[in-house]
Amino acid sequence: MPVSFVWFDLGYTLVYQERETVYRQFLLEQGIDIGLESIEHAYHLTDKLFMREYPGALGQEMHTFYPWYIGVLNYTLQLSFPLSDQCERLRQIEKCRGLFWRAYPFVPSVLQLLKERSLGLGLISNWDLTARKVLEENELSEYFDHIIVSSEVGVAKPDVEIFKKALQVSGVGPEQSLYVGDNYYDDVIGSSKVGMESCLINRFGNVGIEEIDSVRTISSVADLPRLLVAATMHIS
């Protein structure tokens, strides 16, 4: 059956932070010049490692995993620093730069296009109680028919119950629902438990997800309308 409702993840699906710029500034202060593209690649690999090896870690309060994450990031770039000092300095840079979540530039237009094609839109996110603030600050709330946040409902992806709740509130069956996110283990496996189709966002081709086969992938949400046309899911 054609897709009539699309569900989205939030972090690094619809919104992002300029964390690479912060990290690069720290490196420059240490006399180390590494290009942003290499740093972005290292962040990507670190994200995927945490998603694969430490399920749920990235959805916790940042203080519970930040030094651990930065240590792995350093290792990926073949760098080493006293972690306590480094993390303190990174937080200072973040504060000075005003690091915050912002929507990818193409997101509003894609969501608007999907709405114009009469698709229902929803959000299922493992996030703390700031999720709605992030949506409002980026003027994204208006696009969604339903918003489900783990901290509000007491259950998180990949638990089947959060996806059951999504189907219940939307009134749309799994065979007509599509889930879009960047975490294979939370998003693809989780949504499959209720029979949803899924689409995995992976910016660097198959890099970082080499262990995964037979999964529909796109590099960003910007590719979603094209995918829906190619798959004859709904949009023409």
Note the main attributes of this structure:
10 helices; two-stranded antiparallel ribbon; 44% helix; Rossmann fold; globular; 13% strand; 2 domains; six-stranded parallel β-sheet; 236 residues; 8 strands; alpha/beta
Global Rg: 18 Å
Beta-strand proportion: 5-15%
Shape: globular
- Provide the CATH superfamily of the largest domain: HAD superfamily/HAD-like
SS-based class:
alpha/beta
Low-confidence stretches: none
CATH architecture of the largest domain: 3-Layer(aba) Sandwich
Give the CA-CA distance, first to last residue: 15 Å
The name CATH uses for the topology of the largest domain is Rossmann fold
The main pleated sheet reads as: 6 strands, parallel
- Helix tally? 10
Number of strands: 8
The percentage helix is: 40-55%
Mean pLDDT rating: 94
- Give the total of domains: 2
CATH class of the largest domain: Alpha Beta
Q: What pattern of helices and strands is seen along the backbone?
A: EEHHHHEHEHEHHEHEEH
Strand arrangement, largest sheet?
5-4-1-6-7-8
Pfam families: HAD_2
InterPro entries: HAD-like_hydrolase_domain, HAD-like_sf, HAD-SF_hydro_IA, HAD_2, HAD_sf, PGP-like_dom2
Protein name: Haloacid dehalogenase
